[in-house]
Amino acid sequence: MIEFRDHDAIDSMAEAVAAEIVAIVAAAIAAKGEALLAFPGGSTPRPIFARLLASPLPWQNLIIFPGDDRLVPIDSPLSNFRELDAMFAGTGARLVDLTCAASDYHAAGDAADAKLQTLRWPPDLVWLGMGMDGHTASIFPGPDLESALDSPPSRRAVGVLPDPLPREAPVARVSLTRPAIRSAQSIAITLRGSDKRDLIERAIAEGPSSQFPVGRVLAGAEAPVRIHCCP
Ligand code: 6PG
């Protein structure tokens, strides 16, 4: 089930998404003693991260990893893990870096998958962003689109080379696969701007053969999907 939640401003969206994550964590910890969470890159999550930091969470029971990452050194401003580490390193949460110094991005994808195989699956939440090209996580148009979408169910991450390379981060990546995203207990997407809201509505309407990766990821998802939008 896909549900849209529209917010007046980024602050109210941040408050609502943080409250939702606190509730997901509480339920997961009550059920199994830990919460496994995939967080997105990009700028939209930052105020939500700040709200989470101010929330009463049992941080030592949280395992957080980026749903995708750019294959760059960990001190690069392009690194999604660097952003998570800067926000959450002091909390006691366990942070899992999906990148490694592999010689090629396919090998990096294999290594990311191997790391994720060590975690107690499925994630309680996969929280995603979306780009104006309709990518989500790092499932981009390009030569690896089909392998990211149509991996076997047990495959959790793959290496991806977007084509065209996105201007803001023109590098290869590792990403959760579509089966891994859909295996989550819940999926959240956070978006800013009416252009992105229009795009995701169009992608969902197009369904499983959508021209946009996000439409193909969401079509047929069984987990509840909440799409949070603000201007
Ligand atoms: C990436 C980012 C990317 C991001 C979206 C939305 O690795 O390229 O994670 O997928 O989530 O582009 O970015 P904004 O939140 O900045 O709009």
- Helix percent band: 25-40%
The biggest sheet, with number of strands, parallel, antiparallel or mixed sense and barrel status, is:
7 strands, parallel
Radius of gyration: 16 Å
Strand content range: 15-25%
Count of strand segments = 10
Q: In sequence order, what are the helices and strands, one letter per element?
A: EHEHEEHEHEHEEHEHHE
Task: Write a compact overview of the structure shown.
With 231 residues, the protein is α/β, with parallel strands linked by helices. It is 36% helix and 19% strand.
Describe the structure.
The chain is α/β, with parallel strands linked by helices. The strands form two sheets. A seven-stranded parallel beta sheet has the order 1-10-9-6-2-3-5, sandwiched between helices. Strands 4-8-7 form a three-stranded antiparallel beta sheet. The two termini are 23 Å apart. Helix 2 links the parallel strand 2 and strand 3. It contains eight helices and ten strands. 36% of the residues lie in helices and 19% in strands. Helix 1 packs across helix 2. The model has no long low-confidence stretch (mean pLDDT 97). 6-phosphogluconic acid binds next to strand 4.
